[in-house]
Design brief:
Chain lengths: 118, 118
């Protein structure tokens, strides 16, 4: 493995990074093939539409989000989730403040590079 | 892709499966390279020590768990997480009822096969 996180990650101790207006990110466990990322959204904050080659699954831990995948949009609440195939355009708008868990395969090396810069 | 879930998965609508005493599993989004699984544990329920070739990251959504990875054990609570490298023996005991989010790379095809049988 080129990339590998610690085995145990404590939420209160791991780095948090402001990545956009009202959006805070914490990188959790990862290796070359997988990465989990926790993202806090203020109400009204936006995950702008974008696409990437990584497969993604996102779980709504709390809050309410309008999620768009390709040309379809749905309202997602706590316990709902979304699968995003590689290179499919997607985005989300936070309607009630909350937390998403994003997982990617392979790892988002761009996130690690950004964290090292801060 | 050989495997691919729906894009949108609503927690109240997806199948739940009793997989062990006090352990209930719900398969969330997946494709060949990634799979997210939600697991409810009653207090005292055990995820027995085992190993698999998949990389795994597990997030504690709620509850308290004693987690062992290799020869190291830690108490994990809400917001904590654990990374488990391929083929490393791991297990967990639930100390206060709660929910884990397990993610794997590649997908756990064995879980899909088990779900189709029920």
């Amino acid at each position: 493995m080129k990339l590998q996180s610690k085995n145990f990650l404590f939420g209160g101790a791991e780095t948090k990074e402001v990545v956009d207006k009202g959006v805070v990110r914490q990188i959790l466990g990862y290796d070359d093939s997988i990465m989990m990322v926790k993202v806090w959204f203020d109400r009204g904050a936006v995950g702008y539409r974008h696409a990437h080659e990584h497969s993604q699954v996102t779980y709504v831990e709390s809050g309410v989000f309008e999620f768009t995948v390709g040309d379809e949009s749905k309202r997602l609440e706590t316990g709902d989730s979304v699968y995003i195939a590689p290179n499919i355009s997607h985005g989300a708008t936070c309607q009630e403040a909350g937390v998403l868990l994003d997982v990617f395969s392979p790892a988002r090396e761009d996130f690690l590079a950004a964290e090292q810069k801060t």
